[in-house]
Design goal:
The chain has one helix spanning about 1-20; strands at about 30, 35-40, 45-50, 60-65, 70-75, 80, 85, 95-100, 105, 115-120, 125-130, 130-135, 140, 150, 155, 160-165, 170-175, 180-185, 190-195, 195-200, 210-215, 220, 225, 235-240, 250-255, 255-260, 270-275. By secondary structure, the protein is mostly beta strands. Strands 3-1-4-7-10-13-16-20-23-25-27 form an 11-stranded mixed beta sheet, with no helix packed on it. The chain has a 9-stranded parallel beta sheet with strand order 2-5-8-11-14-17-21-24-26, with no helix packed on it. Strands 6, 9, 12, 15, 18, 19 and 22 form a 7-stranded mixed beta sheet that branches.
Length: about 280
């Protein structure tokens, strides 16, 4: 009898430990303030369900709702992590801007690639002005129907990361808003750690799918930048490089078109062709 009681206590304690160890389930949040205006991301009452806000990996944030006016959404002074974002007003052509008063917007999904879907009615302006960090491979989704601007700094955390522009409907992905915008080739949360940031177009070896990525930012030295990685060629894709670079970081390019709109648009470091596609250049 004593043995059974002890065993039961131990099993109950173990069950309690297992319950504590279980991670919180991901939540799909939808924006619930249709008036627009200046709002706070972390205010639970602004979301449906109103039990919290999208602040952890695998949570999704749906801003693709009917908005009566422009929405400026402040993530606040601390970092916010989310797995997927849908952005773009569905009732009228409004501007949706996710900005920050100090925090980073971090994209991370444990189940699959993190993603952003840029949509809304014609004339919608969709912009992320908060510092935007990749803690996972991030897809700008094929389901997007409107242009997207990542207007603030773009960076990565922990290890090498990739941003995929998969918008195949004629939309443009713009990174940066001028010479003060930075593409950080180091770990943004541990600047002494350098690595590789890859920006890839939709893969189409036949070159039948135009994809446009505009880079209106300056990248840092240290680390390396890949514009179309190995096996990511798309001869119909275009990279438009607007800024004169001072960086000495290495840059790898692939079998895409490159519009260089400034001196030193590929930087002052070594520029190499993607190893897997050198025989195909000029075909």
């Amino acid at each position: 009898m004593v043995f059974r009681r002890v065993a039961a206590v131990r099993l109950a304690a173990l069950a309690g430990l297992l319950i504590v160890a279980c991670p919180a389930a991901a939540v799909d949040y939808t924006w619930n303030v249709p008036a627009g205006g200046v709002q706070q991301w972390t205010t639970a009452a602004n979301w449906d369900p109103n039990t919290g806000a999208p602040t952890t990996a695998d949570d999704s944030a749906n801003l693709g709702v009917g908005l009566a006016g422009n929405l400026t959404l402040d993530i606040g002074a601390t970092d916010v992590t989310v797995g997927a974002i849908t952005i773009g007003g569905t009732a009228g052509p409004v501007t949706t801007d996710v900005n920050s008063t100090g925090g980073n917007l971090i994209l991370n999904s444990n189940a699959a690639n993190a993603s952003i879907t840029s949509g809304g009615v014609a004339g919608s302006v969709n912009r992320i002005s908060a510092p935007f960090l990749l803690n996972d491979t991030v897809d700008i989704a094929t389901a997007s129907t409107r242009d997207l601007t990542i207007a603030g700094n773009l960076g990565r955390t922990v290890t090498n990361q990739t941003l995929n522009n998969l918008m195949t409907g004629g939309q443009t992905l713009t990174i940066g808003s001028g010479s003060t915008s930075a593409i950080m080739l180091y770990d943004a949360l541990a600047p002494a750690t350098t690595g590789t940031l890859s920006i890839n177009p939709f893969k189409d070896n036949a070159g039948l799918t135009p994809v446009t990525t505009v880079i209106n930012a300056r990248w840092t030295s240290g680390g390396s930048l890949v514009l179309g990685g190995n096996n990511q060629q798309n001869p119909a894709a275009t990279f438009v490089l607007l800024q004169s670079q001072t960086s000495t970081a290495g840059v790898q390019i692939n079998r895409q078109s490159y519009l260089l709109a400034a001196d030193d648009a590929l930087g002052k470091g070594t520029v190499t062709m993607s190893n897997n596609n050198q025989p195909n250049w000029g075909a």
